[in-house]
Amino acid sequence: MARESEKKLVSIVVPVHNEEEVLPLFFREVRAVSAQLPEYDFEFVVVDDGSTDGTWDFITTLAREDARVRGAALSRNFGQMAALEAGIKLARGDAVITMDCDLEDPPSLLGALLARWEQGYDLVVAKRRYAHGKGWFKRVTSNAFYAVFNWLCDIELETGMADFRLVDRKVVRAIEEHFPEKELFLRGLFQWMGFPVATLEYEKGARAGGVSKYPLKKMLRLAWQGISSFSTFPLKLIALSGVTIAAVSFLLLMTMAVLRFVLGAVAYRDIAFLVVFIIFSNGLILTAIGVVALYLMQVYRQVQGRPSYLIWKRVNLASTPDRTDSRKTAP
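^ that's the sequence the OP posted. Answer follows.
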């Protein structure tokens, strides 16, 4: 799309859910930072992921005051990954920066992200560093996820990587053209694509207000989404477990036969051993079925062809065709 200005356009993509308390503080800071970067034009793409408070009202009011603010409200809460995907595909910028609005990701880092982009990096990732003694639960669970992910998957994510990053337009175009899959795990996908990546470290700040919208349940769901998208190791583990239990069972049977029929010793009650072995075998079988079922659920969602999200309302978007698949836009 042609623009009047010859400056590069930078899109700030912000997924939000029930953030009416924090959004005014975020926009005050992010607009102040963008004003200090006059060599760029900015737009702010805000995706309301099914908020039930006054978040959308604030977005529409702000959009009327500032034409750079472009808002989309999803028809319900589809999750952060879906909201990020929607925002990225609605963005028009030469560079797209995704970040949260709670100010834990500092807008003051925008200049540094853009500087690394200008050096030729197509992806610039902001890596979190927690202050000593703060956010211990989040830090421990995050480190555990990255350790498990890197052990199971063919790609490697650095500990502390989240969704505060800069993405070049060519990367966005690659996602639009080559990735029709549902429930994109963007952190892993960007790493898998192999574009030049730069990393910036920053100290994670305190939330400016409100409460986290990412409880343990959502964290676990995101973790499984990432692992199942980039690893088949759990399926291989099932086969390995089956071979192992078969081998162990065979050795136990041989040992039992030798003790009973060769040595004439009775070291255990047959029925007790049999009961324990059946319980163990059933547990292994149920675990295997459960893991396979989780993968089949992913396949089922892909085959269904349902969109990752539906856009319900728009502001400052009606006159500009967005980049989403038409199937992902509500009538």
